[in-house]
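INTERNAL AUDIT FORM
Audit reference: QA-55
Scope: verify that the stored structure record matches its stored sequence.
Auditor: D.O.
Record contents follow.
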Amino acid sequence: FGLIFSWADNLKASLQFRNRCFLKMCFIFVNVLLALVAVSQVESGEFYVDWKNDRFVMDDETFQYVSAGMHYFRIPHQYWEQRINAAKSAGLNTIQTYVAWNAHEPEPGVYNFEGDLDIVEFIKTVQAHDMALILRVGPYICGEWNFGGLPPWLLGTPGIQIRTQDSRFMKAVNSWLNVLLPMIEPYLYANDGPIIMVQVENEYGSFGCDHDYIKALYKMFYEILGNKVVYFTTDGNGPGYYKCGSLPDHTLLTTIDFGPGGSPAQSFAKLAAFQDGGPAVNSEYYTGWLDHWGHKHSTHCKLFTVNGNWMEIRLFTQNETHELGCFDWSMKLSS
């Protein structure tokens, strides 16, 4: 019997040892798993609108962007890096660009993403300089660009109504977005890329007032990019514009555009009455005005002005022909 009891004691001790080892291995495995999850959470960026506190949040921190409008398709790609460096040296932290559909798809189903139109390379260059990126996709962009970025071959369809729910227009838009958006999706901030915001349409409130059209466009974007990016609209400085050009809920962040001479505080107060919460954003601050052939070069920049709690700053440059140019931004002063 002594041998039996001894054997039983040894078996019991062996089982206890094995159980302790198993539990210890489980504990180590769980901790490693949690560590891997934590690392993945740190590595995956997070950028969103905090509607309640009227701010952008990037990786749990309040984020304010000051951007430079830089249209890659207007700049020889050999100069992209120089332009981005200049913007960063001026204290800006973000680049924003339109996407010119008509440049990328000159004929139906024929695409060009090379050289000056290599948008992926432009995105990578922005990221290499530790800058955030805002893509103003449209598909209508205005931008003082031919046909607002829409391909002229659309007009080959008799009676087509652009910027409407005309099924022929929407089919062409959907085909284009199904080419473009999968290309940029890997470079969203949520995927460790630089893209924090994507614009839907552009100043639509100056053209029409069909919320179903805006919703249909948004749905096309969302089906590919999902909730990984902030979607926004840009409209003129007044309720009559953004009531038609955006949506009153929090589907899209409504932003406005204006230049020097007005009151940012008053403009954003009106916007706040339309949009409940969210950051106040001027996504297209006019640093000057466009030129017309045969007219004098347009210049109306001022050194800087203070309107209420807003300071508008202007930096001046001269080009080779000594024509005055400027770029600027506005920021809210601490109250």
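Auditor finding: record pair retrieved intact. The longest strand covers residues 310-318.
Action required: none
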